[in-house]
Design a protein that fits this description.
Number of helices of chain A: 10
Low-confidence stretches of chain A: 193-213
Mean pLDDT of chain A: 84
Helix content of chain A: 10-25%
Distance between the termini of chain B: 97 Å
Radius of gyration of chain A: 26 Å
Largest interface: A-B, 39 and 23 residues
Order of helices and strands of chain B: HEEHEEHHEEH
Strand content of chain B: 15-25%
Number of domains of chain B: 1
Strand content of chain A: 35-45%
Largest sheet of chain B: 4 strands, mixed
Strand order of the largest sheet of chain B: 3-4-5-6
Structural class of chain B: alpha+beta
Distance between the termini of chain A: 35 Å
Structural class of chain A: alpha+beta
Shape of chain A: globular
Radius of gyration of chain B: 26 Å
Largest sheet of chain A: 6 strands, antiparallel
Low-confidence stretches of chain B: none
Oligomer: heterodimer
Mean pLDDT of chain B: 86
Strand order of the largest sheet of chain A: 1-2-3-4-5-6
Number of helices of chain B: 5
Chain lengths: ~425, ~210
């Protein structure tokens, strides 16, 4: 890079200069000094055979201050972008959907994807854009059809190598969102294609004109079907809360994946019990951009039919954190909500607006409450309590397939709006 | 009257008197046994102490119950308790009234069936610790909003009427629980939230009167 430097063997330091700026690194130390300011690297810089070996972060946090050259590095990948290179982001995720396995590709710009099956256990998806910036280079998704997905551009061409099983009879690619989303479905031998759930729907959504290229910021959504296992939640002769929440969550997952190509995770995908902390932990551990807990209401009043969108009560636990900060080492974990309360409020407002617009005859109120499942979620998060299970008309409507589909589509509209809003970007 | 008849009548009279006495005694014994049983059931360790003295003056309170209309979540019902010397006894009277439920048909009971207050004490900082029986959680029918109504019916009824109580900490079955019935966090003491009710906070009311 043409920067002058002094390599002092006696002092075991390397000094790099650029104008009046000076960067000093010391052998076997993770601390570097930029004009006297100390910067900590994740691992020490070592010297071997007259060469200095530094962690990649030395470029992004150290050397980048000395040169106008931009370094971009996504931790966990083996890719470093040097200079002002346009590399559109690429996201991949794989999911087992009943008899098929679906790989979803999401690109920041429209691309073309071709498929070639080299041998029975290997398929290659070639992408016509290079370079690309993959959020993850490898997915280990093991099921009956797929073993791994690896992004590879070592020869300069972007491609995705699929390690598949002999059971895969065909690969079908469906573009959506003006060629920004691709669903790659692995079909099993002997399975009729129509048995694949919702393979037709992407085509219809793809046909939807998407005039502006919206920058979608919600990539991972965690949905929490309330209750489960021994904890059935509200229970009446018309239905059980834990079953209804799971059915709605699964539906919401499918529609979110199909329409927005979002990575969707459920806190539970079976009738099992989970505590509140474990539910928000799923969202925290997967860096979710949105967390939605689904519940069905119960009121002593059989005529009541209010639905509520809950966000965490403002200022909850504030007095504790104020008094604790000075004399205690740890703050209560359930104050995590405070980092994204504004985002939660914005998401709740958008959900309420869409619901009022599209689901007539129902009341949707935004409320605040000290709720355990929201307290420790460190992303915009809300709890949606739908209807009143004690109201027979409500309970019948909630169990109706058509209503569920309408409700879930409305929720996805709201999530799409939130995803394109600045509030989602603030996360 | 022949002598043997006289003796017979006297013997019968004595027998009757003894039988009467025995009978009365049995009734008394049964009555006292039943009374003992009831006392043991209500409080196994100590005789119940009255929550107020006959000379204590009545005082008006507002009790918050879930509104049938759903909006606002809680509506106030006017009630009377007796102004006992001890703050804890006044708090217990309010909780007793909550357990009895509302008189108005436009409101619903806020506490689940068979909910009992096992114990109550108030700390120097004005935090009322209430230990409810497990039934408050076990018999709760569910629903987030419904649970919120139960929690704030307790919190608001105590903090609104007894300003010395700043916060309420709910314990269940003698221990601290994360939530009441799965939703509402109980790990921190809760303070009054009148935004859920149809009642204006006292300070705002006095401010508007000026």
């Amino acid at each position: 890079m043409g920067l002058p430097y002094t390599d002092s063997v006696a002092l075991e330091t390397l000094t790099i200069r650029s104008g009046s700026n000076q960067l000093v690194v010391t052998k076997n130390s993770a601390l570097i000094s930029y004009n006297g300011q100390i910067i900590l690297l994740p691992s020490p810089i070592v010297r071997e055979d007259n060469r200095w070996l530094a962690p990649v972060e030395f470029l992004t946090t150290g050397l980048s201050r000395m040169t106008p050259i931009e370094f971009r590095y996504r931790s966990g990948t083996s890719r470093l972008f040097v200079g002002n290179i346009e590399a559109p982001e690429l996201e991949m995720n794989a999911q087992t959907l009943g008899p098929i396995t679906r790989l979803t590709l999401r690109s920041a710009i429209p691309i073309n994807v071709g498929v070639k099956r080299e041998d029975p256990t290997k398929a290659i998806l070639s992408l016509n854009v290079s370079p690309l910036d993959p959020a993850r280079e490898r997915i280990d998704h093991r099921d009956r059809l797929l073993h791994s997905v690896v992004f590879d551009d070592s020869d300069g061409d972007s491609k995705i190598v699929l390690d598949i099983t002999r059971e895969v009879s065909d690969l079908r690619i469906t573009p959506a969102d003006n060629n920004r989303i691709f669903f790659v479905d692995l079909l099993r031998k002997g399975e009729p294609v129509t048995a694949a759930p919702a393979t037709e729907a992407p085509a219809t959504t793809a046909a939807k004109p998407d005039s502006v290229a919206p920058d979608r910021r919600v990539r991972v959504v965690v949905i929490d079907p309330g209750h489960g296992g021994m904890d059935s939640g509200a229970k009446t002769s018309a239905g059980i809360e834990k079953d209804l929440t799971l059915a709605l969550a699964r539906r919401l997952r499918t529609v979110l994946q199909m329409r927005l190509g979002t990575t969707v995770l459920l806190t539970r995908d079976a009738d099992i019990a989970l505590d509140n902390e474990a539910r928000s932990a799923v969202a925290n551990n997967n860096q979710a951009n949105l967390f939605i807990s689904l519940h069905i209401g119960y009121s002593g009043n059989k005529m009541e039919s209010t639905s509520s969108i809950f966000i965490m009560k403002e200022g909850f636990g504030e007095t504790v954190s104020q008094t604790s900060a000075g004399n205690q080492l740890f703050l209560p974990w359930y104050l995590g909500y405070r980092t994204h309360r504004q985002g939660s409020a914005a998401a709740a407002t958008m959900l309420q607006e869409e619901l009022i617009k599209q689901i007539s005859g129902w009341k949707f109120a935004i409320r605040t409450a000290p709720l355990a499942v929201l307290g420790s979620a460190t992303m915009p998060s809300l709890l949606f309590e739908i209807g009143n299970l004690n109201n027979n008309v409500n309970a019948q409507t909630l169990a109706d397939n058509g209503f569920q589909a309408r409700l879930v589509n409305t929720m996805v509209d709201a999530i799409q709006r939130f995803s394109e809003s600045p509030q989602a970007a603030a996360n | 009257m022949p002598r043997h008849i006289k003796i017979g009548l006297i013997a019968m009279g004595i027998g009757l008197a003894v039988a009467m006495g025995f009978f009365v005694n049995i009734v008394g014994r049964v009555q006292s046994m039943m009374k003992n049983d009831r006392e043991i059931e209500e409080n196994p360790f100590k005789a119940p102490q009255p929550l107020y003295a006959p000379t204590d003056p009545p005082v008006a309170v507002k009790l918050f119950f879930p509104a049938a209309s759903g909006e606002p979540l809680l509506t106030a019902e006017d009630e009377k308790i007796f102004k006992s010397g001890e703050l804890a006894n006044r708090a217990k009277q309010i909780l007793q009234k909550l357990q009895e439920g509302p008189h108005s048909e436009s409101m619903f009971p806020s506490l689940p069936k068979d909910t009992k207050v096992q114990d109550l004490f108030i700390s120097e900082q004005g935090i009322a610790f209430i230990n409810f029986s497990n039934t408050v959680a076990l018999n709760h029918p569910g629903g987030v909003l419904n649970e919120l109504a139960t929690v704030y019916s307790i919190v608001d009824s105590l903090t609104y009427n007894l300003p010395e109580i700043k916060e309420v900490k709910i314990l269940i079955g003698g221990v601290e629980k994360e939530t009441l019935a799965g939703h509402c966090l109980l790990l921190l003491p809760l303070s009054m939230d009148l935004s859920l009710t149809n009642v204006v906070p006292r300070e705002e009311k006095t401010a508007s009167l000026r």
